[in-house]
């Protein structure tokens, strides 16, 4: 019985964070690699480009940005923007 409760708790906690919580995010080695998959870069939700307008819209995803924030040179919350 204790094992069943533990399994239910693990599933509940994992699913309560959303379906992507259980999946790992891709860490790209540089902007060239990241832009092949996300041409506009990746950003924190609500981030605004410090350099003005961009040509392409970034993928807004907190976990993906956090995994690749080393590529955010101007620290505006958008990595590898174009």
Question: Termini, distance in Å?
Answer: 54 Å
Main sheet summary? 3 strands, mixed
- Rg, Å, rounded: 17 Å
Please report the number of helical segments. 3
Q: Flag low-confidence runs.
A: 6-11
Order of SSEs: HHEEHE
The shape is globular
Q: How much of the residues is beta strand, in percent? A: 5-15%
* Strand count: 3
Overall mean confidence score, pLDDT: 83
**Fraction of residues in helix:** 25-40%
How would you write the strand order of the largest sheet?
2-1-3
Secondary-structure content class: mainly alpha
Describe the secondary-structure layout.
Blueprint: H1 2-16, H2 31-37, E1 42-43, E2 59-60, H3 62-68, E3 78-79
Parallel strand pairs: 1-2
Antiparallel strand pairs: 1-3
Concise description?
This protein has 82 residues and is mainly alpha-helical. The chain contains 3 helices and 3 strands. The chain has a domain at 23-79.
Q: Which labels suit this protein?
A:
82 residues, mainly alpha, 3 helices
Structure explained in plain terms:
With 82 residues, the chain is mainly alpha-helical. It has a domain at 23-79. It is 35% helix and 7% strand. It has three helices and three strands; from the N terminus they run ααββαβ. The protein has helices at residues 2-16, 31-37, 62-68; strands spanning 42-43, 59-60, 78-79. It has a three-stranded mixed sheet with strand order 2-1-3, with helices on one face. The longest helix is centred in the first third of the chain and has 15 residues, at 2-16. The chain is globular. It starts with a helix and ends with a strand. Mean pLDDT is 83; it is low at 6-11.
